[in-house]
Recover the amino acids of this structure.
């Protein structure tokens, strides 16, 4: 796992009472698989696939479009991180889902991509 040398430098990007900001800050434990200056990736607490990793930008934004508007470089970094994790865990092949809005199933309003890999047992899309 790669590590970040100065985690405190990102405090200004945090939102109070945000679960994923708390995980990024290390206030709530998570099973981290990758981290760098732009993203933190950790295993979903309720996995839906052999590999189910949440790829999360360090900057707080409520959804992926808001992230694209405010920190597009972090969105690009999320894609690179997802590929790096998939290369290590599931032959480089994966599904990447961004739930956006409650009706789409979003429950944590800090942008994140679900990296799903392994035997996915068919495909919704
Ligand atoms: P979403 O429903 O798209 O907002 O995704 C939120 C995801 O966060 C769900 O798949 C949850 O299982 C996951 N989750 C909630 N709390 C934690 C936690 N403490 N550590 C890891 N994953 C979590
Ligand atoms: Zn947040």
């Amino acid at each position: 796992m790669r590590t970040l040398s100065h985690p405190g430098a990102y405090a200004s990007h945090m939102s109070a009472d945000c679960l994923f900001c708390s995980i990024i800050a290390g206030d709530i434990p998570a099973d981290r698989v990758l981290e760098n200056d732009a993203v933190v990736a950790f295993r979903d607490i309720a996995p839906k696939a052999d590999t189910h990793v949440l790829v999360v930008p360090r900057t707080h934004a409520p959804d992926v479009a808001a992230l694209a508007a405010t920190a597009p470089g972090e969105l690009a970094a999320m894609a690179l991180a997802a590929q790096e994790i998939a290369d290590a865990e599931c032959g480089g092949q994966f599904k990447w889902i961004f739930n956006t809005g409650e009706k789409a199933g979003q429950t944590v309003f800090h942008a994140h991509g679900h990296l799903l890999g392994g035997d996915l047992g068919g495909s919704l899309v």
User: Anything to note?
Assistant: Helices lie at 19-25, 64-70, 72-89. The first helix runs from residue 19 to 25. The beta strands are 32-35, 39-43, 51-57, 95-97, 113-117. Confidence is low (pLDDT under 50) at residues 2-11.
